[in-house]
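Input chain follows. Return structure tokens only.
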Amino acid sequence: MQFIDLNRQYLQYKKQIDKAISQSLNSSSFILGKEVSRLEGRLAEYVGSKYCLSVANGTDALHIAEMALGIDSNCNVILPSYTWVSTAETIEMLGAEIRFADIDEDTFNICPNHVSNLIDSKTKLIIGVSLFGQTCDLHELQDLANHAGIKFLEDGAQSFGAMTSGVKSCSYADVSTTSFFPSKPLGCYGDGGAIFTNDEDIFKHCKLLARHGQDENKVFQIAGFNSRLDEIQAAILNIKLDNFDKEIQLRQDVAEMYRDSFSMHTSEIKTPFIKSDMVSAYAQYTIQFAKSSPKSIQDQLKEDGIPSVRYYTPPVHIHPAYEHHASKLEVTEMISRKTLSLPFHPYMTHEEIKLISESVIRAL
């Protein structure tokens, strides 16, 4: 059994994907070709954003967006610790002070109240990570940023396709980023990422940074990066985007099967809490245990041939590279000790869910 069975997904669209790859190879247009241009337009339209810029990966998307927002050693940035390291490392590399905010116990997303308490005169940016497929509190965080006269960035690496109150992830914040790493809800067969914004100036600055600082007249206006999504990955993503809404619905169905399987054990197992106005992209299916050790559950699953992952254990602020940003994050540290992510993808069967859930329940 695979934790995320990408081959099963590939076989669903093998004919279309193989054809798209072959056409890209035959065109010999490998960099910034028509598939990239088409994809950027489609992605912007899908989320409801004015601008989309594709880049080499999700980490580059964060780094470039943050540089375009002027993040440097003269400011601080508020972000969660319960996240993949990219969210913090790009800020660290820009020299800004990191202020780690605690998370909500139910959603695992950054807590707006804690964010509010951390804002001061040197704060320039709030980063909300939309974790495990559920968007962070987009409206509340943007309101906090607006009130403070600063910017808000949504790290939507795990939430592309999610929606809150009719608003899609990657469409609402001052600037948003996502990742097309293969295991993401919309993933390619290599690395890829994108930046979204409704602000033309931010978009133009990001584009300059991502393209060596070169403008449309071939003049190098600033020092930049070489960060581009290649044509073959764009072609693959265009095929996957055709079927993406169907897969988002399939993810809801798989989550419901899991929920039903654990319904008689709610005092021992807490399944993902999804807000009533939310459609989650379910990048992962992460459960909490009231008493049992996630490690003991993981050992039982492994014995039964079932993979599982303990994400962000320990969280970022405890790692040596970031511990100098002194932080006391009680909820973050508690959640990191209690959670375990189970195999999840759109094409899981009822039989597989039954096998996994029975293994978990046996280990309680």
